[in-house]
Amino acid sequence: GCSIGLVCSACAVCTTCGNLVCELDEDYVSCPSDCTCGNLVCDGGEDNTSCPSDCNPKPTLGYDKSGELSVAYCEDLSCSVITKNSLGLGKRYATLSIPPDESPFLAYNGSSGGQYVGLYGIKCQDKKCTSYSTNPLDPLPIIGTYKSSAVPSDNNPFIAYTFLPSLVEPINLSLIKCGNPDCSSNNIKTVVAPTSYPVYISTNIFGNDLPGVVFSDGVGGTDGVLNLNYLECITADCSLHNVTLLDSFAGSNPYFI
Fold first, then answer.
1. 13 with 2: CB under 8 angstroms?
2. Percent of the chain's residues with pLDDT above 90
């Protein structure tokens, strides 16, 4: 049965309003003491309809201006007010992704003497990146400017990027699965079979919580052919994967998102 002080769904399931836990049968309307709309956390029982301020993630931008990498956090959905934090100079061609913990992750090229040196990861300690940690991902001196990142439910980033193992071709597509959220240890690197000019990389996490990577490769230019490929990760670190040819482009470059 149902008694005073309990919130019920058709009196079939009763939950305790006032225990400071927003349970499945509670929301901000039925039990505001437990489900605090406005605390910037999408609590259980809240969604983007009942509490859009908490459950609609605000846009977060990473950008490079004259070699200075910054994160801009929008205080509202229209970005009429932003909070900007600088992550320092000498950080180029960054990619930003938002993990489940909502504290951004960025991967970027180091820069020294006009060369792009090494691949690094930044893990923000909060949504606005007011503080962060930096760790090297790949120390190889020649890292391509194409990269993309995504973060699955374990909060450990996945990065796809290009690099030259030496100063000569081929350019390789590489994958890194980080061993923890800030990529400070136990990272696993996988090199996909050598390709020629892998570019325009896009990465996402799919319903099986595994990454997938879209990339093009081949020989560009008016006389060349570029292939559009999909790389399916079979394992979380993508050491096992399949590559499928999706399309070919003669004399043009495939751009995609």
1. no
2. 40
In 3-state terms, what secondary structure has residue 204?
A: strand
Instruction: Confirm if 161 and 201 have CB atoms less than 8 A apart.
Output: yes
Strand bridging mode 158-163 / 172-177: antiparallel
> CA angle, 249 as apex, 244 and 251 as ends, to 5°?
150
Which are the contacts of 150, defined by CB distance < 8 A and separation ≥ 6? 97, 157, 158, 203, 204, 205, 211
Which range, of 58-72, 144-158, 162-176, 232-246, averages the lowest pLDDT? 162-176
108-130 tens-digit pLDDT: 988 776 667 789 999 999 999 99
Q: Does residue 8 have a pLDDT over 60?
A: no
Query: How far apart (Å, rounded) are the C-alpha atoms in residues 226 and 216?
Result: 6
